[in-house]
Design brief:
four-stranded antiparallel sheet; single chain; alpha+beta; Alpha-Beta Plaits; elongated; five-stranded antiparallel sheet; 57% helix; 15% strand; 18 strands; 614 residues
């Protein structure tokens, strides 16, 4: 009697918890349907604002749909571990650069571990890793272990930083997993602004404060580069630049007066770069790509003054004729301060209330350094560099003891908010790039939902009708247990904020078959006992007891297989395995406990006979 009460209490609790867990999903559906019923936009907006808290709470707790059902983005990103190991090296020379270039080429052509490629190249050159990495006394094996740890840490940090960025962006239930030693698999359901997400994820967020060199040094440097290009017969490209070099130069001259004493017959550099009277260098939008590739060449960088680098502005200025002109800065290569000291970032509008900007606060260490740097460089310009592009280069008016600074030169508040996100989340340990991208539109997701629900409905109907026809009243108990089984699976997914995907629906369909299979085993055992002449109550009791071991074995083996799929699988495989695990556990509960209590209820009211099992 006590056991029966416990079973009834357990069924009641499970059912109530399942309904409670799925209630927000129903509320979310009701709100969405009601909002869609309004014919005018103002009425819909008023209803949404008056019920804002309830709508947001229901949406937050409702059953989430996966990428294939809701639409969104699927990305495969790769951490540039060649760049990571280059940063860790010391005593770098031309030989090291050649080795790393070879490694970079091989890494782009295979999925092999970068550390293995580096080790192989050093062995081919008959060189020890300690020449460039860690201590000279370390053996190659010790260095490989240390670099392996750096590689694992970098991938883990990249995963967490990207997760933080996505969480702050507001994507519900993103899926981020690692693949191999340098890849991240990212699924973002419900994302519509794909370009914004790409920029948010790819940005390294490497923030640096660098001193600008004097304009006279910039002019002399450009003259030296131009002379070198003349001597090596280098000409600016005719394509993809849209206009001729003469037209580019003419527009630059029209924008502002250009410093005199420029080469007139051979000026490959000054055909794509202009210098204004104040010593500021610019390039046009059409010539930007060529200039960037030129400045990244090793022979060009070797001609620059020691510890300097030429960087372009992240945003263009607009010339008198409406031409987009990108300023070029000569900055110190060694930063005065890095973004590691930033503790807070906030997107806002400037003092005029028009131009977006990002306010930054620093920790105590950064505050003291910033005060010293600004105090020692009053009247000079400090460039705020993010991911190799200059966002602004303000003149230091006075010492800044508070540790606060501002990034401006931002076009929109949306861009400022994205910059706030990446600064808060921190800098990636190495650059990441998108190597694969797929988008699923919401209409395609709706088709998948329709197809998935249809397959689930057909499976349920087919199985239910079969059980009713073949097992009569006993089939009703099996069908009730089947409904409860599906409700439990969906409620667990909703309760733990897991996503329902198309493979997940396939897992539920498979669960339906498993649940009925367990009932078939039990019912056939009961039939055998009835044929042997036992009473109905005794036959049901013995039938459950004898079928239990077979049912338990099949469910446990299925659970183990599903667990392995979930542990070692990725993406869709995990979605299938998760619903299969939940459904298998629910099937064991409903087939052993629920149907038996239904039979007890029916027998107690004389609603079952031996013919009830067909």
């Amino acid at each position: 009697m006590k056991n029966k009460r416990f079973n009834l209490l357990l069924i009641a609790v499970v059912t109530l918890v399942a309904v409670w867990s799925l209630w927000p999903t129903w509320r979310d559906y009701s709100f969405s349907t009601h909002l869609g019923s309004f014919k005018s936009g103002p009425d819909s907006l008023r209803y949404a604002m008056s019920n804002r808290d309830e709508i947001e709470n229901a949406r937050k707790k409702s059953l989430k749909l996966g990428l294939d059902l809701k639409g969104g983005m699927h990305l495969v990103m790769e951490v540039d571990q060649v760049d990571l190991f280059e940063q860790k090296a010391w005593n770098k020379d031309a030989k090291f650069a050649a080795i790393m270039n070879t490694v970079r080429t091989k890494a782009s052509q295979s999925d092999a571990r970068v550390i293995d490629l580096i080790s192989a190249e050093f062995k081919n050159e008959n060189m020890r890793l300690s020449r460039y990495f860690y201590d000279i006394r370390n053996s190659d094996q010790e260095i490989v272990k240390k670099l392996e740890k750096e590689s694992d840490d970098a991938l883990g940090r990249a995963k967490e930083i990207i997760r933080n960025r996505i969480d702050q962006y507001g994507v519900a239930e993103p899926v981020i997993t690692t693949q191999g030693s340098r890849k991240l698999i990212i699924e973002l359901p419900g994302v519509s602004d794909e370009n914004r997400v790409r920029n948010l994820l790819k940005g390294t967020a490497k923030l640096e404060f660098r001193l600008l060199r004097d304009p006279e040094i910039l002019v002399r440097t450009l003259d030296r580069l131009n002379t070198y290009l003349v001597q090596n017969s280098v000409a600016p490209p005719s394509a993809p630049v849209a206009d001729s070099s003469a037209a580019v130069s003419a527009r630059l001259k029209a924008a502002k007066p250009v410093v005199a004493a420029k080469p007139t017959s051979a000026k490959p550099l000054y055909d794509v770069i202009g210098i204004f009277q104040n010593g500021t260098a610019y390039t046009t939008e059409h010539s930007k790509e060529f200039v960037v590739s030129l400045l990244h060449r090793s022979d060009i960088q070797a001609l620059l003054p020691q510890d300097t680098e030429l960087l372009l502005s992240a945003k263009p200025d607009i010339g008198k004729n409406g031409e987009k002109l990108f300023p070029i800065y000569l900055v110190r290569k060694t930063p005065e301060l890095t973004g590691g000291v930033i503790t807070e970032a906030k997107a806002t509008f400037g003092s005029q209330g028009v131009q977006p900007e990002v306010l930054m606060s620093m920790n105590s260490e950064g505050t003291s350094k910033w005060a010293r740097i600004t105090g020692a460089n009053i009247g000079k310009r400090i460039a705020i560099v993010l991911d190799g592009a200059v966002y602004s280069a303000p003149v230091v008016q006075s010492k800044i003891p508070s540790g606060n600074s501002v990034i401006n030169g931002i076009e929109s508040l949306e861009e400022a908010k994205d910059l706030e996100i990446v600064l808060k989340a921190g800098a990636l340990p190495a650059p990441v790039r998108i190597i694969e991208e797929r988008s699923v539109g919401p209409s395609l997701g709706a088709d998948y939902i329709r197809a998935g629900v249809l397959s689930l409905a057909w499976a349920f109907c087919a199985v239910s009708v079969f059980m009713l026809v073949y097992y009569k009243k006993a089939g009703i108990a099996a069908d009730i247990a089947l409904v409860l089984n599906i409700v439990i699976v969906l409620s667990v997914l909703a309760g733990f904020n897991a996503s329902l995907s198309l493979p997940g629906i396939a897992g539920i369909v498979l669960t339906i078959g498993m649940a009925v299979d367990a009932n078939v085993l039990i019912y056939e055992r009961i039939r055998e006992e009835l044929d042997a002449g036992k009473a109905l109550t005794s036959a049901i009791e013995v039938g459950y007891d004898r079928a239990f071991s077979s049912i338990l074995d099949s469910h446990v083996t299925t659970l183990c297989a599903a667990f392995l799929l979930f542990t070692y699988g990725i993406g869709p495989i995990q979605g299938f395995a998760l619903t299969l695990m939940i459904g298998t556990a629910a099937s064991l509960f409903t087939s052993i406990v629920v149907t038996k209590e239904i039979f007890s209820f029916l027998i107690g009211r004389n609603l079952m006979t031996q013919k009830s099992f067909g």
